[in-house]
Amino acid sequence: MPDSFIYANGRISGKENTLLDERMWQMLMSAQSEEEVLRFLGDTWYGGFMQHHSLEGCFINAMEVTEEELIELSEDDRLIRGLLHRRDVRNARYIWKNLLSGQRSPVEIEIERPGLISVDILEKAVSTAEVREELPGLFRETLEELLETEGISGPALDRKMDNLAAEVEYEELPRISSGFRTFVMTGLEQKNFLIAGRCRLAGTSKQDVQELLLHGGYHSTEEIAEAYQRNTLPLLIAESPGFEEPARAFAEALDSGSFFAFEKECDRQLLELLEKGAFPVFGPSPLAAFVIRREMEIKHLKLLVAAKIAGVDSSRLQERLPRG
Fold first, then answer.
1. Integer angstrom CA distances of residue 135 from 41, 71, 72, 144, 152
2. For residue 38, with 0-12 CB atoms within 10 Å meaning exposed, 13-18 middle and 19 or more buried, which class applies?
3. What pLDDT does 1 receive?
4. Which has the least CB within 10 A, 55, 131, 148, 175?
5. Does residue 283 form part of some domain?
């Protein structure tokens, strides 16, 4: 056990208190308006980021601070690559989508603080082959595929970037700990069945469905597409390890036409893996798990705020969020 992680892992125990507890989630879920949600959030750890930022800016800054603080606690290369390359994927999506659409100048888009790839490299790589060679392999291959596709549409570009995000997580996070392989595979399996389920309701063709699926889950894209064709998706997802509750919710979703309960069970499943996963007690794993828990918390806060703005009833919101 490296001595350098004793302090870092100790700091994580203290950071746990900055995550929103069940009581706060209950208050947020019961809030009558966006203004009330913001007032409650102002009394939490997020309050320190709300004074000088829009709510979106607050969340971006909060996420950056979380990542940077934990990376400063540990200079382990596995942790740095595992966290910052995920940020690079997000910035690449913003920048490449903007440049390839030809709609706006890249300086007008909101991006995150650079991870391991500078904004300048991501921008220049679109037009300069020599700069493209400086990109990590997965990034370079994705950009070259985008450039080879003339007049690529927004949805098609998003699919390419979704694949890049999945490949980066599958390559980088398990290097931190083998326990993250289960986490990544579970997340990819969830996304694939959500895609397939929604396509089932929309009547999408088998070929189109398979093109939308991501590699790296417990079942291959071919297996899922075949089950889609045979109308046996509920049976296939039930075979996925640890998917008892998500599989039940998935079958109900196909009948009801709403995937809220399925998405809720999927998020609950991921949170349980992060909180109780087979990670070493010491080392970079608890730090990475904390960052992803914060990321999921922010994702749920965004859903909650959007629901309050839209006037969604609290009981309806509880069908989607595994909180409160």
1. 39, 22, 24, 11, 21
2. middle
3. 44
4. 148
5. no
Q: What is the pLDDT of residue 56?
A: 86
CB 174 within 8 A of CB 214: no
Length of the chain: 324
User: Under a CB-based contact definition with an 8 Å cutoff, are residues 112 and 87 in contact?
Assistant: yes
Helix (H, G, I), strand (E, B) or coil at 125: coil
Same domain, 24 and 39: yes
Same domain for 100 and 47, yes or no, is no
CATH at 33: 1.10.132.50
Q: Could you tell me the residue range of the domain that residue 5 belongs to?
A: 1-76+297-324
Segment 174-192, tens digit of pLDDT: 999 888 999 999 999 999 9
Q: Which band of pLDDT confidence, cut at 50, 70 and 90, is reported for residue 111?
A: confident
What pTM value is reported for the model?
0.90
Asked whether residue 285 is domain-assigned, the answer is no
Query: What distances in angstroms separate CA 280 from CA 1, 175, 272, 283, 289, one per listed residue?
Result: 10, 13, 15, 7, 11
Please state the rounded mean pLDDT for residues 312-322: 91
Residue 268 burial (C-beta neighbours within 10 Å; 0-12, 13-18, 19+)? middle
> What is the chain's Cα-based Rg?
20
* Side-chain-side CA neighbours of residue 110 (13 Å): 8
Last residue of a domain, one of 144, 177, 210: 177
Q: How distant is the alpha carbon of residue 181 from its chain centre?
A: 15
Residue 93 phi/psi, 5-degree rounding, is -60, -50
| DSSP state for residue 106 in the 8-state scheme | G
Place of tokens 């909101």: 110
Give the separation between CA 47 and CA 51, rounded to whole angstroms: 7
Q: Averaged over 61-85, what is the pLDDT?
A: 87
